[in-house]
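ok, trying the design again with the full structure, not the truncated one.
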């Protein structure tokens, strides 16, 4: 696999706090207007425009490994610019932490330079209508007609997302000099991190105007994301316009974010400075102009359906050669993808629980027996193989056969569980999946392999 692309892939797949420059370009909307969209056209809405500039260093593990306790690090400069424009309105009356909003992206473009490599991306036109809700710790994104990919989800995840602006509402009758602190849970949401260990964000009223107030926000945070320690400093201002509706609204925000994050087993580290600017305006939505000329789409994802309807908490990935696709829980993170294999890792509360390697096999007419599969596994593991735990054969309604072989053994002085699968479609398309779980995490892993397999598809559906 090309090294520069592998490193870019790592960047695209770590949860986004700073690098919105990797956002894909969304410039088109469907021609047909559904009944739900027509309701949106007639509703009150807010339009958000987000601009970002990033500059700094990105840190990679030279050879990320599942078992090592230390990583050799290399650095490259990174620069990114991006712009997002979308219109948003609520689609239900659930509590704020579970409120679902509908976003129609009219623009989301980015240019990112990593070392000497320029990256520009684009989102398929049928993915510009996105549903968003909070799950309490992060935001979930999905579309009615299917699932978003992990890069698409990460690229739509932005620090100071407008869905969290409720945490910035100033106290009633605020006066210059008034101060308050933003709660830790809200800070984690605003900065797109999992945990805040120490530090606070402090808000101070700078001045009062005829329309509202200007608030300064600043602070230093020590926290973690996917188990990787991160230090974040924030300094900026926002304008709060007074109103009768929920205390008013944030109309403009500009913050400078400095972040230093260590390399983890699933993502690179960063030492960057970012400037995030957000503007908001409310009004009556006008029907967008439909653009049909000059459209482009991401090639590798076309040719297989996204198997909708979509739902929160899950993402989708398609093999570059369209031999298989997978709907997976977003706790699984992509480490590497090539035409030869896909590697993903499962992180739970900051702990690296498991790794799965998905490998397409050459199609063949003859049937691979369960006994043959057991022998192959033992030979492949070699001295790491301890003993067989279980072996089973099953089939799906679509005719796909599944062989599952579980074993235990030892590698580098650690005890491991291995779970191997062999899938074969009625047409002879074959797929191998290998899960490795450190034995100390096996109870936490539970039946994650079976849940993952439920989303794996080797048959082509029109």
């Amino acid at each position: 696999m090309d090294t520069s692309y592998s490193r870019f892939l790592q960047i695209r797949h770590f949860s986004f706090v700073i690098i919105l420059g990797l956002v894909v370009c969304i410039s088109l909307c469907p021609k047909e207007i559904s009944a739900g969209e027509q309701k949106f056209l007639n509703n009150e809405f807010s339009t958000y425009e987000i601009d970002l500039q990033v500059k700094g260093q990105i840190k990679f593990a030279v050879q990320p490994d599942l078992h090592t306790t230390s990583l050799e690090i290399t650095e490259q400069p990174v620069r990114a610019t991006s712009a997002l424009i979308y219109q948003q309105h609520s689609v239900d009356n659930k509590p704020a932490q579970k409120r679902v909003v509908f976003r129609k992206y009219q623009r989301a473009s980015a240019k990112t330079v990593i070392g000497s490599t320029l990256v520009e991306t684009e989102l398929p036109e049928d993915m510009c209508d996105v549903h968003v809700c909070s799950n309490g710790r992060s935001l979930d994104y999905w579309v009615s007609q299917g699932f978003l990919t992990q890069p698409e989800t990460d690229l739509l995840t932005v620090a100071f997302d407008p869905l969290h602006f409720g945490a910035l509402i100033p106290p009633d009758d605020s006066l210059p000099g008034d101060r308050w602190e933003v709660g830790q849970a809200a800070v984690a949401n605003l900065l797109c991190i999992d945990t805040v260990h120490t530090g606070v964000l402090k808000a101070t009223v700078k001045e009062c105007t005829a329309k509202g107030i200007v608030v300064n926000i600043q602070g230093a945070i020590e926290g973690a994301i996917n188990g990787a320690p991160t230090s974040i400093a924030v300094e900026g201002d926002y304008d709060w316009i007074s109103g009768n509706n929920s205390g008013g609204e944030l109309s403009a925000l500009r913050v400078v974010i400095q972040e230093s994050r260590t390399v983890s087993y699933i993502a690179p580290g960063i030492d960057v400075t970012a400037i995030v600017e957000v503007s908001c305006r409310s009004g009556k939505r006008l029907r967008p102009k439909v653009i049909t000329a000059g459209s482009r789409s991401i090639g590798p994802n076309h040719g297989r359906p996204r198997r909708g309807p979509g739902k929160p908490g899950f993402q989708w990935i398609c093999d570059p050669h369209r031999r298989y696709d997978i709907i997976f829980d977003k706790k699984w993170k992509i480490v590497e993808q090539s035409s030869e294999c896909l590697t993903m890792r499962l992180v739970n509360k900051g702990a690296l629980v498991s790794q799965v390697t998905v490998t397409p096999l050459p199609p063949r007419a003859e049937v691979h027996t369960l006994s043959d599969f057991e022998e192959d596994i033992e030979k492949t593991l070699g001295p790491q193989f301890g003993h067989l735990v279980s072996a089973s054969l099953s089939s799906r309604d679509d005719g796909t056969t599944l062989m599952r072989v579980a074993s235990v053994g030892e590698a580098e002085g650690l005890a491991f569980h291995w779970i191997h699968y062999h899938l074969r479609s009625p047409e002879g398309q074959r797929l191998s999946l290998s899960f490795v779980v450190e034995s100390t995490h096996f109870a936490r892993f539970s039946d994650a392999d079976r849940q993952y397999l439920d989303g794996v598809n080797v048959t082509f559906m029109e």
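Keeping the full-length input from now on. The CA atoms of residues 205 and 215 lie 4 Å apart.
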